[in-house]
Amino acid sequence: MTRGTWTRRIAMTAVATAAAWALAVPAGAQAATATGTSTSTVAAAAAAEDVDYATWQTDCQAVMNEALPYLKQRIAAAKPGEKQAIVFDIDNTTLETDFGFSYPQPANKPVLDVATYAQEHGVSLFFVTARPGIISGVTDYNLKHVGYKVSGLYVRGFLDLFKDVAAYKTAQRVTIENKGYTIIANVGNSATDLSGGHAEKTYKLPDYDGQLS
Predict the structure, then answer these.
(1) Number of domains observed in the structure of the chain
(2) Which residues contact residue 201 at a Cβ distance below 8 angstroms, ignoring those fewer than 6 apart?
(3) Residue 91 maps to which CATH number?
(4) C-alpha 56: how far from its chain's center?
(5) pLDDT per residue over 62-121, tens digit each?
(6) pTM
(7) Computed over its alpha carbons, how large is the radius of gyration of the chain?
(8) 153-187 pLDDT per residue, tens
């Protein structure tokens, strides 16, 4: 991750933490292991000082254009009683983390469109992130505010901060499977989001040599 990305991420955390305090005050505030994993990627653009938003959106759309036909077929082929799920990363996957500091953060539209199709067809959406637990509440609100139906949100507790991120995320997918779900897809923009198995297919969004990890 570049210094610029770290700066944006720290600013995002500060904004989200401030929002957490704001939301806490008002009384009316929002109170089957898979076999065979196939990773889908888009050719990464050469690293640049700043990632171009339009290019990022085009590249994300290309990945989701590949994912949607598979998901339509897999959802239609659900076995009787099968509980299907998709696992998503958050930063620069489901939300536009590094393209502004507003709160709530906008949805990454190509991913939201696919998620909307899935949730409208009975698929549960789970979100596994390396974000710290202190901003769990505002993250949950943000996801729901922009249109995601959150069946589960997994954030890092204090002890998780000392664990390997890939191992932490794999463990959360195992937890989801242990609840009886079949993870038909796992979507993220970093290798740590997708390694470790426990998903039938993986789809990698661009991170441009770590600039958007």
Answers:
(1) 1
(2) 37, 38, 39, 40, 67, 70, 184, 185, 186
(3) 3.40.50.1000
(4) 16
(5) 999 999 999 999 999 999 999 999 999 999 999 999 987 789 999 999 999 999 999 999
(6) 0.80
(7) 17
(8) 999 988 888 889 999 999 999 999 999 999 999 99
> How many whole angstroms separate alpha carbon 137 and alpha carbon 77?
35
C-alpha to C-alpha distance for 135 and 145, rounded to whole angstroms: 15
H/E element, 16: helix 3-24
In a domain, 90, yes or no: yes
Range of the domain at 33: 3-204
| Residue 212 domain-assigned (yes or no) | no
Q: How far apart are alpha carbons 68 and 103 in whole angstroms? A: 28
Residue 201 · residue 185 · CB < 8 Å: yes
**Domain assignment of residue 126, yes or no:** yes
| Chain centre to alpha carbon of residue 190 | 10
One-letter amino acid at 75 equals I
9 contacts 97 by C-beta, under 8 angstroms: yes
Looking at the domain assignment, is residue 56 inside a domain? yes
